[in-house]
């Protein structure tokens, strides 16, 4: 029986519907490339929702807090890039890479072996990864062409990993909100689990609500908002004072 950690977080019915729609995954296409390269690796759900006023949700979305709002996807190319990023940190077996992605995202995204192992074989075929065989197990290492591929996509990889870290923290924040217990805080008032300050969370909520309220803005108003956001982005990404 497949271990639960290897299952994607798609509801069972959704997985059946998806498999029916796409048909069985073939290991190779006519060019010898893996079908994974042409498909999307499924990731679980969307941001967690909570109370309509957003008090428990650090991103300020409403909802009933019962689960994932929408399904998200991780493309085959992004999965390959993340695997290369993990291999740069440590040579690993496939199951170790699966566990690493699950740990990074706090369980939000744990790809199935059926996605990871074909991706690793594809990376090996491209020369991006090498394989060390030990009995029936394979340990994958990052090859120099793979490092060059990473160097060309550092910003993209960093954003993907940071997104998973954010989701992991958000899930911890939400669990704490649902528990109803007071948050433990650090010396500067930050939540000891996520590291987030209440005012940081409140500012995120306020921005998202403000943008939702301007959904029907005129083109002139949209340009004004865009200019404000551009200035804010420049300040956020600029050097810390």
Percentage of residues in helical conformation: 40-55%
Given the C-alpha coordinates, what overall shape results? globular
Tell me the major beta sheet: 3 strands, antiparallel
- Named at the architecture level, the CATH assignment of one domain is Orthogonal Bundle
Series of secondary-structure elements, N-terminal to C-terminal: HEEHEHHEEHHHH
What oligomeric state is this? single chain
Determine the mean pLDDT.
77
Q: Order of strands across the biggest sheet?
A: 3-5-4
CATH superfamily of one domain: Winged helix-like DNA-binding domain superfamily/Winged helix DNA-binding domain
SS-based class: mainly alpha
Any idea of the CATH class of one domain? Mainly Alpha
Organism: Achromobacter denitrificans
Protein name: Helix-turn-helix transcriptional regulator
Pfam family, one: PadR
InterPro entries: Tscrpt_reg_PadR_N (IPR005149), WH-like_DNA-bd_sf (IPR036388), WH_DNA-bd_sf (IPR036390)
Describe the structure.
This protein has 241 residues and is mainly alpha-helical. Among the domains are: 76-181, Arc Repressor Mutant, subunit A (Orthogonal Bundle); 197-234, no CATH class. The protein has helices at residues 12-22, 76-89, 94-104, 113-126, 144-151, 154-179, 198-213, 219-237; strands at 40-43, 72-75, 92-93, 129-134, 137-142. A three-stranded antiparallel β-sheet has the order 3-5-4.
């Amino acid at each position: 029986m497949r271990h639960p950690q290897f299952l994607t977080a798609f509801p069972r019915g959704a997985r059946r519907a998806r498999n029916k729609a796409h048909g069985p995954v073939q290991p190779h296409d006519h060019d010898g490339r893996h079908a994974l390269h042409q498909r999307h690796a499924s990731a679980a759900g969307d941001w967690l929702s909570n109370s309509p006023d957003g008090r428990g949700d650090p991103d300020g979305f409403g909802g009933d807090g019962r689960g994932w709002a929408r399904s998200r996807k991780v493309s085959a190319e992004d999965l390959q890039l993340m695997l290369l990023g993990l291999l740069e940190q440590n040579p690993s077996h496939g199951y170790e890479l699966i566990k690493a992605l699950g740990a990074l995202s706090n369980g939000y995204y744990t790809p199935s072996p059926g996605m990871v192992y074909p991706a690793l074989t594809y990376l090996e075929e491209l020369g991006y990864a090498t394989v060390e065989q030990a009995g029936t197990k394979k340990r994958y290492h990052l090859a120099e062409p793979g490092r060059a591929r990473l160097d060309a996509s550092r910003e993209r990889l960093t954003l993907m990993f940071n997104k998973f870290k954010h989701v992991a923290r958000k899930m911890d924040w939400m669990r704490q909100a649902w528990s109803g217990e007071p948050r433990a805080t650090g010396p500067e008032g930050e939540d000891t689990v996520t590291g987030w300050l209440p005012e940081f969370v409140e500012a995120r909520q306020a921005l998202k609500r403000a943008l939702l309220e301007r959904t029907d803005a005129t083109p002139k108003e949209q340009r004004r908002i865009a200019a404000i956001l551009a200035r804010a982005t420049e300040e956020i990404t600029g050097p810390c004072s």
